[in-house]
Amino acid sequence: MALTVAVAGATGGVGRTIVEQIQNENKFSVIALTRRSDMIDDSRKEHVESAISDIPYVQVDYDDIPALVQQLEHHEVQTVICAIGMLGDACSEAQLNLIKAADRAHTVKRFITSEFGYMTREERKDIDPGVDWFLAAASLLKSSSLTYTRPVCGAFMDFMGAPRARSNIVPNTIAIDVFNREACIPGDGSARITMIYSYDAATLIAKLLELDEWTEFSFCDGEDTTLGQALKDAEEVCGEKFNVTYLKPEDVAKGDVPTMKVLEGSGIHPDDLNAYSVFGYQLYLAEGFSLPAEGRLGNKFPGFKPRTVRDFLEMTWGSHV
Question: pTM for the complete prediction?
Answer without folding.
Answer: 0.90
